[in-house]
Sequence to fold (89 residues):
Amino acid sequence: MNDQIRVVGEVFKPTSVPYRTNMTLLDLMIDIGGLTPFAAGNRATLSRQVHGGRKTFTVRLNDLLKDGDITANVPVQPGDIILIPQSWL
Fold:
């Protein structure tokens, strides 16, 4: 089983992070140093293996990181991939 969480796109440090028990999206963002100024945080997606296939969920990183909306903090799981797109200027 893959015990890494991958983060790609508009982040300061695109990387794989080792999963830790009870890890959340906020923990992950702290580990990678946050979003770039060009990130469209509320259009970010989380891709997760579910029942033999991949399912994609939208995550609200701007709400979490900029507005402090703790309801946007969701658990992450081993094997998750977070993709943060660039904002439209």
